[in-house]
From TrEMBL:
InterPro entries attached to this UniProt entry: Ig-like_dom, Ig-like_dom_sf, Ig-like_fold, Ig_Fc_receptor, Ig_sub
Protein's UniProt keywords contain Iron-sulfur: no
SUPFAM superfamilies the UniProt entry points to: Immunoglobulin
Signal sequence region: 1-20
Ranges for region Disordered: 345-366, 389-443
Transmembrane segments: 293-315
Protein name: Uncharacterized LOC109986740
Domain of life of the source: Eukaryota
Ranges where the Ig-like domain occurs: 24-96
Alphabetical keyword list: Disulfide bond, Membrane, Signal, Transmembrane, Transmembrane helix
Database matches in SMART domains: IG
């Protein structure tokens, strides 16, 4: 008998020694393939047997956590990195976690019920996904276990309501997924055995947005006074059962509760009841998660923009690198003198006033003749004698000053359209002509 007792003690010592020498291991719960902003997850240091707790390291830096289980209540990209734990001077391998900075594609909300329910109650959840729910299922995390929820789906369903089983543990986490590729957000439902509960939005609060807390009493709305507390310090006391934070900041994080003074409609006498709620954690995100579809669209626009810029630079480079002439000379047909090159030494004869004595030039019909200074006498004027198309070639007729007396004018002599018929004659009369007419009258 004595030998058997010693054997049992020896066996227990060996088991304890083996546990102390066991290397700890970090595990993640729930076992997500992707972690999104706002998710809740747990890290556990498995295999630890130290009575003095464990040490946690994040990116090789020791943390304040000493519990075997480390709860990340609201995940953000800041939680991305490596985690490891140490127990009995044994250090676990590192586990790497990457928290995505955007929200999942599908949406899960509470359709009926509250984020805080009484024990053995249930809620109705609603799942929505624009791309359809074919192949989707939901999961629930209670304590340390995860269970599968099968959904009754229609062929073309994009939205589905389903009722949960009874809520029996203090905290239950729900989410839905499609083969591990796509997932919804989490919904956390807590339970309380108290008559008074603190209601708030089931998802984390967002910096810059408003947050409303409501004190509820099961079975009645006859609430005469409500007091709100944060971390044990009173915030406000009034007859309004709600408390609103107009613009959430990081300092809004903390544990909140409320206390109500109330009665029931069927109670006609006696003092009012006074009861407080359980503490609830208010979690804060520094910015709202961005929808996955929005990020995909932004990424596609950036890719298309970059491609357009690259193509434009490539085309410009090809044009610069081309060896051929940018402008091609137009070949002049034989005998076509409409367009000729203007040489530096010899110009076309259209501008005789610039080069009146240009060599090797033949006079063309209808051109202008140069006005030579030496052939002009003082006081000589020119006018144009118009002829018809079938008449002579347009020449200039000199009106010489000699032979003209003061006050004598000549008009433009205009020939007819055919054969040079006169259209107008000179109408001026000289003084000598007037004298001849006078003598004839006297005779």
């Amino acid at each position: 008998m004595k030998g058997g007792t010693q054997l049992l003690l020896l066996l227990a010592a060996l088991v304890l020694q083996s546990r102390c020498q066991q290397t700890p291991k970090v595990s993640l719960s729930p076992t997500f393939t992707k972690i999104y902003s706002g998710d809740t997850f747990y890290l556990r240091c498995e295999g630890s047997a130290s009575q003095s707790g464990v040490k946690w390291y994040f990116n090789d830096t020791e943390q304040m956590q000493t519990n075997e289980t480390w709860k990340i209540a609201v995940a953000t990209p800041w939680h991305s990195g490596s985690y490891q734990c140490e127990s009995n001077r044994q250090t676990s391998d590192k586990i790497t976690i990457n928290v995505l900075g955007y929200a999942p594609s599908a949406s899960l909300i509470i359709r009926t019920g509250q984020p805080v329910m009484r024990v053995n109650e249930s809620v109705i959840l609603q799942l929505d996904n624009e791309d359809g729910l074919r192949g989707w299922h939901c999961e629930v995390y209670r304590g340390k276990t995860t269970k599968y929820i099968k959904l009754k789906l229609q062929e073309d369903s994009v939205s589905l309501d389903f009722q949960t089983s009874q809520l029996t543990v203090p905290e239950t986490i729900f989410w839905c997924m499609n083969g591990g590729q796509h997932r919804s957000n989490q919904i956390t439902v807590r339970t309380s055995e108290k008559t008074v509960s603190l209601e708030m939005y089931p998802l984390p609060a967002v910096v810059g947005e408003s947050l409303t807390l409501r004190c509820l009493v099961w079975g009645t709305d006859q609430i005469s006074q409500t007091t709100f507390y944060k971390d044990g310090v009173m915030l406000v006391r009034s007859d309004d059962p709600t408390y609103t934070i107009p613009s959430v900041t990081e300092s809004a994080k903390g544990r909140y509760k409320c206390m109500s003074i109330f009665t029931y409609k069927d109670r006609t006498a006696g003092p009012h009841y006074s009861e407080s709620s359980d503490d609830q954690d208010v979690l804060v995100l520094d910015h709202p998660p961005v929808k996955t579809l929005f990020l995909v669209l932004v990424f596609l626009l950036l890719v298309l923009g970059s491609a357009a810029v690259a193509i434009a630079f490539y085309i410009r480079y090809r044009k610069r690198a081309a060896t051929g002439a940018i402008y091609e000379d137009v070949e002049r047909k034989k005998g076509d003198n409409d367009y000729e090159m203007l040489g530096h030494a010899q110009r076309e004869g259209e501008y005789d006033t610039l080069h009146p004595e240009a060599p090797s030039r033949q006079k063309r019909e209808g051109e202008y003749e140069a006005l030579k200074k030496e052939e002009m006498e003082e006081g000589v004027y020119h006018t144009v004698q118009m002829q018809a198309a079938s008449g002579g070639g347009g020449e200039y007729e000199q009106l010489q000053k000699e032979g003209m007396e003061e006050g004598q004018y000549q008009s433009l002599n205009m020939e007819g359209a055919i054969g040079g018929v006169e259209g107008h004659e000179a109408s001026g009369k000289s003084d000598k002509g007037r004298e001849n007419e006078t003598e004839e009258e006297k005779t």
